[in-house]
Amino acid sequence: MDKCNTPLPLAGGAGGGPVADAPANPADSPSPNPSRKREGDRTEGDEPAVTLDAFLDSQTNATAVRLEAGDDARALLPYLDRIALVEVSFPTFRDGRGYSAARVLREAGYTGELRAQGDVLVDQMPLMKRCGFDSFAPQAEIDPATLEAALTRYENVYQKAADGRVPVWALRHG
Amino acid sequence: MYKYDQYDQQIVDARVEEFRDQVKRRLAGQITEDQFKPLRLMNGLYLQLHAYMLRVAIPYGTLDSRQMRMLATIARKYDRGYGHFTTRQNIQYNWIKLSDAPDILADLATVEMHAIQTSGNCIRNISSDQYAGAAADEVADPRIWAELLRQWSTFHPEFSYLPRKFKIAVIGAEEDRAAMRLHDIGIQLVKRDGVLGGRIYVGGGMGRTPMIAPEIKDFVTADDLLSYVEACLRVYNRYGRRDNIYKARIKILIHEIGADDYRRQVEEEFAHVKSLGLDPPKAEFERITAMFAPPSFVAADTPATPFVSSEVETPASATGVSTALEANGDFQAWRAQNTAAHKQPGYAIVTISLKPTGGIPGDATAEQIDLMADLAERYSFDELRVTHAQNIVLPHVRKADLYAVWQALDAAGLAPANLDLISDIIACPGLDYCSLANARSIPVAQKIATRFADQNRQRDLGELKLKISGCINACGHHHAGHIGILGVDKKGTENYQLLLGGSGAEDTSLAKITGPGFDEDGIVDAVETVTNVYLAKRAEGERFLDTYRRVGMEPFKEALYG
């Protein structure tokens, strides 16, 4: 399948509410931040994401960057306020470097679109969302019902991450 | 012991449903075996030579009688009536049907158990000292820290697709009973100026490139623990190699960049991570601590408890005071060998050996598992432990009850008096079960135990930790054996290399290969040969390991190959 298929947006972007509050069909849900439209962000004619090297080397005014699995996301930290899209590549679902890249960007305050692209599978997407990804460009089609079940399955989480969900230790101790 | 609250239970219940859905999608062909593999592995399900193997998590090796009985139930209901306790303080079932796996997880969830992260390239079940909470030499109970880590690591969103598996051990004593420095992260609890903290070692491991973890941080308090390990893991996830699975463990990274550079990067990351508020409040530490409060020990002069078991009839008249029966030599030998000092006067720590002569190390039948559960309920404040040496511990037994416990164990074939002796062998499942193995481990263990079956001979040889792996992945911990055996494939036949001088204890060392390997009978002879060298060379009070360290490899080589 074409790598550039339309990204699948998610309810609850960076800092969004807990998954348990998500509407039944994430794809139909309104964004909690109406000023930032995810759906259709990337269409024919949109600015293509440039490589990290291209972004850093030239005096580009690109606002979309693509991180390969081996790229160090920390290199982007000085420029976050002018980036609208970071696309993180998952060459294979087994390569988990992109999860850390996402956390690093969100923890540094990046609020733009964070897209997981490549071998992105439904069973990994809940974890990706917890790390701060808010859009997905999977190589293979994702069944919406399976995705919805995956994203709403866990009412509770043990850790604080980049998605704003309240960990059980905080629930236990107010 | 830790007890689930509604949140823990919801998470484990949700996991059962998630895996049920994943199995359904796999069986319907909606996901490929390649895509399914990491999902099933993260639920402890391996495809082995003959069937699926399910590895059930026993967090830090601690369980109660209700959980132990469930392990017996699963052995009967879904397997062939037995289970195999592993070097990771877990239990494995070797004859599982994929379609049964969701039901097994559902059964486990009813007793606060699961198989989460017992395999896969994620943070594995946290291991610990089997004597935790009972050991006389303990600074603090390491299970409190281990439970914090268990929760933090469960479905960690960032660290579920690591370069390779990741094992963490926590100990609370100077004596290391958990091979702490042979883990990806080892934590030893220490007190400094009256404050409890953890000394952090990173980058140990066995496998094909064994390494002893260097100390990365001398002191981390519980308040900073999760942020610190988060930083340790993030640096690893960033740089750990993905191009070669044999070079993907954190030990390789630390070996390549050096402990100092790794430490510097972790400190830098920690300074950032600590600002994120990832660490639970003190109240959470206190909540967990309360659940590991010492049991209500009784004074030493209270009469002994009669034993009534559903499985074994034992005379209820055993009073625990000295009787003619107690003078029984077998009991005395067992008591001397298989009990350890307890911090509470009047109590002992009992190790139940799962190493009968000629048996399979770590195997127990459903009936034996039930009996051990009965004994724990009756005599050990309802607690059991699994040891990395594949034995079971009753951590809190009154000395007055030891005889009754021994009688019940002996009647069930569970009273070999061989803890830490040459027949207390660690062995991986080997080529009898495992698809990775090059050679069988179990028959070698059986032959060695049989060769040294004479109790007096074993006791004369003293502490001698013999460990057998059926391939270089080292699941049988051969690198840490006083005597290690490694099975290899030599031109299509099974061949066994002999190693000497390893230790998984506080004096951690890696065993060295003696020279050319041996066939199955030859390796048994070779073990006997090196024990004879020890007997001839030992100085007063020296263990095999001490003599080896003093005299070196040469005398052993000379005797083997001379």
UniProtKB/TrEMBL annotation, chain A:
Region span, Disordered: 1-46
Compositional bias ranges of the Low complexity kind: 19-30
Recorded superkingdom: Bacteria
Record field: compositional bias (Basic and acidic residues): 36-45
Name by which UniProt lists this protein: DUF934 domain-containing protein
Natural source organism: Sphingomonas echinoides
TrEMBL record, chain B:
Record flagged with keyword Magnesium: no
Occurrences of domain Nitrite/Sulfite reductase ferredoxin-like (ranges): 52-109, 358-412
GO molecular function, one term: sulfite reductase (ferredoxin) activity
Gene3D superfamilies with a match to the protein in the record: 3.90.480.20, Sulfite Reductase Hemoprotein, domain 1 (3.30.413.10), Sulfite Reductase Hemoprotein,Domain 2 (3.90.480.10)
Keyword Secreted in annotation: no
Keywords associated with the record: 4Fe-4S, Heme, Iron, Iron-sulfur, Metal-binding, Oxidoreductase
Residues annotated as domain Nitrite/sulphite reductase 4Fe-4S: 119-272, 423-560
InterPro entries attached to this UniProt entry: NIR_SIR_4Fe-4S, NiRdtase/SiRdtase_haem-b_fer, Nit/Sulf_reduc_fer-like_dom_sf, NO2/SO3_Rdtase_4Fe4S_dom, NO2/SO3_Rdtase_4Fe4S_sf
Domain of life, source organism: Bacteria
Its EC number(s): 1.8.7.1
Protein name: Nitrite/sulfite reductase
Provenance organism: Sphingomonas echinoides
